[in-house]
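tool_call: predict_structure(chain=1)
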Amino acid sequence: MERLPLNSLFIKGYRAFESLTVEKLGRVNLIVGKNNVGKTALLEALRIYANHDETEILYEIVFARNEVTEPRNHSLDSTREYGLGLRSLFTNRPAMPERNEKRRDNPYFIISSSEQKARNFEKKMLDYDEQSLKSNYEAAFFEAVGSKVTFVRYSHDPSRGVLNPLYYPRESRDINNLFISSTGLGNDKLVEFWDTVTLTELEDDVIEALTILLPSLSRIDFIGYPTGSKTRVPVVRVEGIKERVPLKSFGEGLTKILGISLALVQCQNGILLIDEIENGFHYSVLPDIWKVIFRTAKSLNVQVFATTHSLDCVRAFEEAASEDKESEGITIRLERDEKNKIVAKVIDEELLELATKHNVEVR
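tool_result:
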């Protein structure tokens, strides 16, 4: 078995995660739980960890949640607005100091492959010389070579009232990764990724995935449609129809599975994150979709993390995992304990099979 990017996960201080440990991760990980327990936030944390030197990821995350809504520009007010939006990434959303008020506390969040590594690095950073942080910046990324830790601190420049991120580069540790939102990949990404697989063996894998939903499909391509348009869209050839047909004519599910299959190819030896994976799919096709994901993730050495609200999706996951004894499927249930703290419970395949058979709640 090829090595996975992550075998476990520790998060502290990110959004609602005061301190979260996921003791075991598999090749394909399904994240379940009730609303407002942090399923999407867990994907965000993984995305930040995988893109540790991409400060822009922080802005993309808050923008997607409408925590920042103003158009971005280089003005002082816009910079301050975006810096304020980053507060939502920290547990308990730190208050904004008044101008010329010195911040006494410096909230932070930390994401690591293990709690021990995080604790060791946390102590090092909290002892770090404050002056060397160039305190006129709001968020700072740090990395100790080989530590596999992402540390983001919230600080503030009282003289300017401006919040900005700052990255301290050491040695790149980015992990090949992609994030698919609940609405799927955008058309530009579909075009970009298709051009990397067309006329290769991987194209056959993509077409095979599409035939789960449309068995009569024989070919797919991206063309200017209508003819002459600069925007390329997916069109397909299907049995019984002479002309080529836009893929979306057959529903959003086909576009979603196209995006997932193309993203798996792009994430070879990396991580794929999928939010609300069941969106756009009829429950009856979910087992076959999971089988494609298990098979492709294994062949291309991709670690997959997906969230779901659907019990049908959990059952389909269990069915696909039980048929493949080497599927390396893990279900992670997020829930609140008696102190209202979010905790993670790993459900192995045997327990998941028992729970789904007897309708035991896993959401």
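agent: The chain has three domains: 23-50+267-363, 52-167, 187-251. Proceeding to next step.
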